[in-house]
Specification:
340 residues; alpha/beta; 7-stranded parallel beta sheet; two-stranded antiparallel ribbon; 36% helix; 14% strand; NADP_OxRdtase_dom; Aldo-Keto_reductase; NAD(P)_OxRdtase_dom_sf; oxidoreductase activity
Amino acid sequence: MTLRSITLGTGQHRLQTSALGYGAMSLAGAYGAITEADSISLLEHVAQREVTFLDTANIYGDGASERILGTFLRHRRSEFVLASKVGIEKGAGVGKRRARGDAGYIKEQIDQSLRRLGTDHLDLYYLHRVDPDTPIEESVGALGELVTAGKVRTIGLSEATGEEIARGHAVHPITAVQSEWSIFARDVETHVLPTCARLGIGFVPYSPVGRGLLTDSFESEALPADDIRQNFPWFMPQNLPHNAALVTRVRDIAARLELPTAGLALAWLYQRAAALGVEISPIPGTRTAAHWDQLQRGVDVELPDAALTELNGLAAEVSGDRSFDPRWVSGGREGLLPRR
């Protein structure tokens, strides 16, 4: 599988990387257990598929994801574009953590992340969530100081609103914005993506296959009790049967086009991004090599107009919001969530 390159951002703050990245939250057990040996094996497989963009965060498994990536990257750090995040304090679990973006915290956490990752710099460092108690200007200013210090090459924001992105970009150039975006979750198209297009900021969609919903392998009755998805409205008992029926429609479209459903979901993203004028590198996460190959099949597929029309109408039919707390994501703070 030959994987093309893309450029996030513009000017001296641009970052060249693969058109598809790996989201390493899965290595911390969020969607089920995986051993460190299996994690390393999976990362080797992803690297063999010419993926050079690896994304993690200090909060994933309380540093476990970063440590595993650090092991994998030993003696080969220069082969990869490495991104991590700061801005969520450890709490009692999903929905019980808080955003923290003050300058002191950011400068403290970078050194811990670099130590776990076994490197002296990150290629991209995101503010994981916007702190409601800290002006975005302070958070971005601190990230910018890390660039000056040589600890970070470029900076990004995650789940920031269009207005927050513009304010942050005025302090220091933002290279990439990361937010959830998929066939089922499209609120970023209203304000966030137009802002990125206008300012020349790249976009990194996380959960591009709807946390596993938009795949051929998802089985609603097999969701483990400790799976992180149990906390998200799409997967709750009052919403999941309806959403699973929508997934069946997506699978039918994929079957007609002889694509894996996950590959179809990625192909839709690339075409939608091109229509909106943004450069993207999605970061799906998986625990199996076979699932990765299904995803990657969608990178350079052009979907027919009829399929795009069918897929474009599905988000309005999804039951439940994409987040357990609308304030936790950009669409909620922009008044786009909740729908129902």
